Amino acid sequence: AMAEGGNDDVAGEPAGPATVATGDDLRIVSLLPSLTDIVAELGLAERVVGVTHECDNGLVLKRAGKGPVVVTESFIDPKAEQKEINDAVIESLAQNHSLYALKEDSLRPLAPTHVLTQSLCDVCAVAFEQVKSKCARLLADKPYKLLSVEPSTLQDVQESITLVGNNLGASREAIDAALNRFDTKKAAIEAAVEEHLSQVGVGGEKPRVAVLEWCEPMFTGGHWIQEMVEAAGGSYSLAKKGERSRVMSQEELKEYDPDVIVMAFCGFDLERCEADTRKILMDQQGEHYAWWSQLRAVRDGRVFCTDGNQYFSRPSHQLVDGIGILAQVMHGVPRQDASERRWTRLTL
């Protein structure tokens, strides 16, 4: 989805692409880490002038000269307990309040030619309507383009790379190269899994996987997660392709009784994921230990923590690395580089 803006937008006539700068005059504000990653993947990291408080792309943040300005802030304390964060999210959404804000004094002077955002999830970024209205007011004196991307499948993610590239004036070669890296890396993982399975002579049964996006309360992984698990040689029926993540009861997880559990908490890195899983689910004095410890995957020592923020909830080429992680924890291929440490195994 795309909305174009600028001084004409106030009157209901969007500024045409010809009125918006490209090339060396590009001034990009990215309001989502995945879009920042896509811009960098297209070779345009140098053109990013504004990012969110969560953007961490090294090419963008460590570029030569002055780095980009942070233009968002969060009303959620990232160090709070999972239940506290979930309660705050529910309360904010019920009152139609955004969890994040655009910092007007930071955005206005940047005079961006392009503002990249999304309307898929108000928990992940500044609400689209807030972005749209603030840009119309703050950037009314210069033409700009507001681009909103809402991928929910792997195919959507690839299409968003093309969409972003086309709207930023990236070369066809740069777009094709980015798509080719996505496809080539994914195909290599799938080939490694297929070769491994043929060598070990495993039958038709693929390991049943649960990917948890949150654990208090428990949320299933949704959107592209089923595709990722299947590409890595597993089965996943907690959500269909493209479906949103949802709350799951302990009874449902017990009935599903997965062979492998992957903890990939939205917005959290590996260290926080491991700490929360140990504290909430694996503490022998905790309220969940009695039922959690009886799950097949837990008894078999096949519970894995990973960086959900980087590799599972970020719709960019990073998802291919997530497929690689799933293949590693399920099948041991491709081998994990010791220097990377993208996942850890938790045992009782």
Write structural notes for this entry.
The structure is a single chain. By secondary structure, the chain is α/β, with parallel strands linked by helices. Helix content is 39%, strand content 14%. The protein has helices at 33-41, 58-61, 82-94, 104-107, 128-138, 154-168, 172-200, 225-231, 250-256, 270-280, 289-292, 296-299, 308-311, 318-331; strands at residues 2-5, 28-30, 48-51, 69-70, 72-74, 100-102, 114-117, 144-148, 209-215, 218-220, 260-263, 303-306, 343-346. The strands form three sheets. The chain has a six-stranded mixed β-sheet, sandwiched between helices. α6 (154-168) runs antiparallel to α7. The model is unreliable at 1-18 (pLDDT under 50).
Shape: globular
Query: N-to-C SSE series?
Result: EEHEHEEHEHEHEHHEEHHEHHHEHHE
Mean pLDDT: 89
Low-confidence stretches: 1-18
Order of neighbouring strands in the sheet with most strands: 1-8-7-2-3-4
How many beta-strand elements? 13
Helix content: 25-40%
Q: What's the main sheet like?
A: 6 strands, mixed
End-to-end span in angstroms?
A: 46 Å
Q: How many helical elements?
A: 14
SS strand fraction: 5-15%
